[in-house]
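Homework help thread (please don't just give me the answer)

Our assignment gives two proteins as sequence + structure token strings and asks us to describe the second one. The first is just a warm-up. Here they are:
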Amino acid sequence: MSVPAAFDYHPATSVDEAIALLQQYGDEAKLLAGGHSLIPAMKLRLSQPEHLIDIGKISSLSYIREEQDHIVIGGLTTYVQIEQSDLLRKHFPLLPEATSMVGDQQVRNRGTIGGSIAHSDPAADLPGVVLALKAEIVVQGPQGKRTIPADDFFVDTFTTALAPDEILIEFRLPKATGSTGSAYDKLANKASHYAIAGCAAVITRGQDGSCSAASIAITGATVRTIRARAVENALVGKQLSETVIAEAVSHATDGEDMIVDIHGSEEYRRKMAAVVARRAIMRALERI
């Protein structure tokens, strides 16, 4: 059995303490939330932090609540809490739907939304959902809090706009207005449950029945989670027939660098991204 390299363990009891530890140990430290991404990497020695800062017991970062025109979710809220939240089922059913497809029950019991988003695995499910819902991501560092739009958060594979001494503490989701439907669809790797290609779709229909707004995010196929702007532009202002949708999703990964590995070639992933995007958009329309 693989075992991690030696490290020092630091259980943090507050956000301020965790930030201080990040400042103290710098590049030699890693944050531990749910641990389902970091621990396997450490066991394979792909990641070898000298200091592990455990933020998993900071209870103040685990919540789902309503604040005026937003729903806010703490960074340490677990997948199972999201999956079972009546508040999210009412306002953002896309999140519980996608979360139910993450890993297995053991992973969903321990894994956290903040850990997933901060890790920025391009094959993970929740980065696409957070992007499609146009979330505001609140982070905290030595200089205080700042808010990063989801559109600006995902930089590259395993790379985000988080500074090394910042912690992701909250997601703020603006409530939808108008007639809106959403859906998540993915082609999953049967062993890992990660997305070979996935799509989160949010569609709003105007009074004349045409698409007045669209937010389409692709995950799994590209080297980072992306908004499929070409698809959105092709949908907005149109009556969404099957023909219109099929033409729109053919542009799902235009101009993007694709993941190429043993699970799929570039051509295969481009085609599968279009397939899951069409399915997600069609189901989102049905749910309006």
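The one we have to describe:
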Amino acid sequence: MVTPVRVVIALCLFVPFVAMLWVGSYAKTDPAFIGIPFFYWYQMAWVLISTALTMIAYQLWRRDQRGRSSRKGGVAE
């Protein structure tokens, strides 16, 4: 079943893949950040962003599963 929460979860997990696979958007050296070329710091920033988005997706999934199990009256699978 597709719900708005599950769409948000999918977007949280999908966005980092798109950001990293679209190499043309970050295959450059400028702007540099504290002497680090853009290519490197952009990827490292996405490591942190991906971690945050995955944590958000996980928390939303847990909340969705708890809601589903309470509506069913059973234990979440």
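TA reply:
I won't write it for you, but here's a hint about the kind of observation we're looking for: The two ends are 15 Å apart (CA to CA).
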